[in-house]
């Protein structure tokens, strides 16, 4: 491809709305352009990389005999209502009505659709197991789209679904997808972690996420050298909360004027945060839930939703809470509260003489004790883990790293098949619901994740197999006929062997070099002043110095050097480790 004819509008300036490096570089490098908040156009460079990522994903799916289909983006509301997820997804769903006032959604995922499709086609256990996948656009109305293509409203995803007649069969396919995802990441040439994950609105039991390590990733991962790893939504630790040996004191209600936050309460009452219990009100399908946790810890809403199996669970609005309970949120507490289910984190189980909201404006209770002053309905782990806490497997301090999720696998069980009445005839002649698995891969997210990990101060450092071009030919001047003629000859020779970009623009050498680095092309072939001696310069993207190659007797030696350098090319070696102890 000739650069003079290629639509690759690079920019010198950093975009005003670029929050992270990948967003900045993809815009500056001419890969994407913003159409609306969370919606992007992929320009030729971006589209080319996407297609190469898709090819790798598609090949690994076909290697495990998953079959490609293509399902509609627009899905009828009925199937989502039948599964119960019309409300679970809530405002994240892009909902619309047709001219007949029928409800539809732009699919955020396709569990309902695929189950509806196969339930009338797969009738016998003899047809199982089977897995089907597609690569298609998805839509989620993110409340705050951010990080460029990493958290967008419209995105490209590979989603796959498997159908089984036994848990053993599901386990086998789950492992096959797990290994296929590892192969994808290895072929993409990035550092990654596989971690235990929350199932969220997808549901099911076991789930793992495939995370690309990144200094400014959107996910927080806790891991240990023993092999344990999990996202912050799922992570647990082996913290032991010892029983207090204090004598129970008399509960008192005290004045706390305009004192609402944990920090304010601690300072005003001169107590440590560990002596305060946070009281947080949530509303879900079954009504109000009061979640209690020790004051120095953060509540994990994903664990709370998972415990109740209710993805609609959300924190109550201040005005709604005041109308329902007659008190402002800063003074809510478990003593005397009515018509709520009280769920407590294990961190407060052994506490004594602690502080809670007084259920009255500008009031708190001190010396509160469980069972004597209020009852708890259930204890469960609803706490966010912190770096340094003991690993649940070996007890060593947990480490923390940031990551970007690019893939996730789920064991769905019979969640969708039962609700959507998708049954097959088992070997014993009985009708049974399909046991299902689900496997997602974010194609467009992968684009951003790779850039976030593999870049330097000059631009992107693409792995060879997904770079928009493997090498670029740069004559330092198109006005020097000797250079332009030799560049043309070289271009014709190489374009049948490699994915080649020929920068034939009438621009300064510095401008061309900067664009090549910004775009992230693995190898430069430079035709400059050394051509007087019959030599060209060859330089990998991350190398400081170029290698001179004599071409006076032909291109044979140059071809050997090009192949050698491209085979040795490994961006990971030149990107600093982002593991944080």
From TrEMBL:
Keywords: Aminoacyl-tRNA synthetase, ATP-binding, Cytoplasm, Ligase, Nucleotide-binding, Protein biosynthesis. Coiled coil: none annotated. It comes from the Bacteria. SUPFAM superfamilies: Class II aaRS ABD-related (SSF52954), Class II aaRS and biotin synthetases (SSF55681), YbaK/ProRS associated domain (SSF55826). One of its GO terms (molecular function) is proline-tRNA ligase activity. It is found in: Cytoplasm. Residues 38-463 form the Aminoacyl-transfer RNA synthetases class-II family profile domain. Its main location: cytoplasm. It is an enzyme of class 6 (ligase). It catalyses: tRNA(Pro) + L-proline + ATP = L-prolyl-tRNA(Pro) + AMP + diphosphate. Its EC number is 6.1.1.15. Consists of three domains: the N-terminal catalytic domain, the editing domain and the C-terminal anticodon-binding domain. Belongs to the class-II aminoacyl-tRNA synthetase family. ProS type 1 subfamily. Homodimer. Catalyzes the attachment of proline to tRNA(Pro) in a two-step reaction: proline is first activated by ATP to form Pro-AMP and then transferred to the acceptor end of tRNA(Pro). As ProRS can inadvertently accommodate and process non-cognate amino acids such as alanine and cysteine, to avoid such errors it has two additional distinct editing activities against alanine. One activity is designated as 'pretransfer' editing and involves the tRNA(Pro)-independent hydrolysis of activated Ala-AMP. This is Proline--tRNA ligase. The gene is proS.
């Amino acid at each position: 491809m000739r650069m003079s004819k290629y639509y690759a509008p690079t920019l010198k300036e950093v975009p005003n709305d670029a929050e992270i490096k990948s967003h900045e570089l993809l815009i500056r490098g001419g890969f994407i352009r913003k159409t609306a908040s969370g919606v992007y156009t992929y320009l030729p460079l971006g589209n080319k990389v996407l297609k190469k990522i898709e090819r790798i994903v598609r090949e690994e799916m076909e290697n495990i005999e998953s079959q490609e289909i293509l399902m509609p983006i627009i899905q009828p509301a009925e199937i989502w209502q039948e599964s119960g997820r019309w409300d679970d997804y809530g405002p994240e769903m892009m909902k619309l009505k047709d001219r007949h006032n029928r409800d539809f959604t732009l699919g955020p995922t396709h569990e309902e659709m695929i189950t509806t499709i196969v339930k009338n086609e797969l009738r016998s256990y003899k047809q199982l197991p089977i897995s089907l996948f597609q690569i298609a656009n998805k839509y989620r109305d993110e409340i705050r789209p951010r990080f460029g293509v990493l958290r967008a409203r419209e995105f490209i995803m590979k989603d796959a679904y498997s159908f089984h007649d036994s848990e053993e069969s599901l386990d086998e396919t789950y492992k096959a997808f797990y290994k296929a995802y590892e192969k994808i990441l290895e072929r993409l040439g990035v550092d990654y972690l596989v971690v235990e994950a929350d199932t969220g609105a997808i549901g099911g039991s076991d789930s793992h996420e495939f995370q690309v390590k990144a200094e400014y990733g959107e996910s927080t991962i806790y891991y240990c050298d023993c092999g344990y790893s999990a996202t912050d939504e799922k992570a647990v630790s082996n913290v032991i909360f010892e029983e207090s040996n204090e004598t129970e004191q008399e509960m008192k209600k005290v004045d706390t004027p305009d004192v609402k936050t944990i920090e304010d309460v601690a300072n005003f009452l001169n107590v440590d945060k560990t002596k305060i219990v946070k009281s947080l009100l949530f509303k879900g399908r079954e009504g109000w839930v009061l979640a209690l946790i020790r004051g120095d810890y953060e509540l994990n809403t994903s664990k709370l939703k998972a415990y109740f199996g209710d993805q609609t669970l959300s924190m109550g609005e201040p005005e709604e809470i005041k109308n329902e309970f007659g008190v402002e949120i800063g003074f809510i507490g478990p003593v005397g509260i009515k018509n709520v289910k009280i769920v407590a984190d294990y961190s407060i189980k052994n506490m004594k003489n602690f502080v809670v909201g007084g259920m009255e404006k500008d009031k708190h209770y001190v010396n509160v004790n469980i069972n004597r002053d209020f009852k708890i309905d259930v204890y469960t782990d609803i706490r966010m883990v912190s770096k340094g806490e003991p690993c649940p497997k070996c007890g060593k301090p947990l480490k923390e790293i940031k990551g970007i999720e690019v893939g996730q696998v789920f064991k769905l069980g019979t969640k969708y098949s039962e609700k959507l009445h998708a049954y097959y005839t088992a070997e014993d002649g009985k009708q049974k619901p399909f046991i299902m698995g689900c496997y997602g891969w974010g194609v467009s997210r992968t684009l951003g994740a790779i850039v976030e990990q593999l870049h330097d101060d000059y631009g992107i450092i693409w792995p060879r197999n997904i770079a928009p071009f493997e090498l670029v030919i740069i004559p330092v001047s198109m006005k020097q006929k000797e250079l332009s003629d030799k560049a043309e000859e070289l271009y014709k020779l190489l374009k049948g062997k490699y994915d080649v970009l020929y920068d034939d623009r009438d621009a300064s050498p510095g401008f061309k070099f900067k664009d090549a680095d910004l775009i992230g092309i693995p190898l430069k072939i430079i035709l400059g002043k050394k051509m007087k001696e019959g030599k060209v310069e060859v330089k990998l993207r991350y190398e400081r110095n170029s290698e001179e190659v004599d071409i006076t007797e032909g291109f044979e030696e140059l071809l050997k050097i090009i192949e050698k350098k491209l085979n040795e090319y490994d961006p990971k070696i030149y990107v600093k480790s982002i593991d944080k102890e």
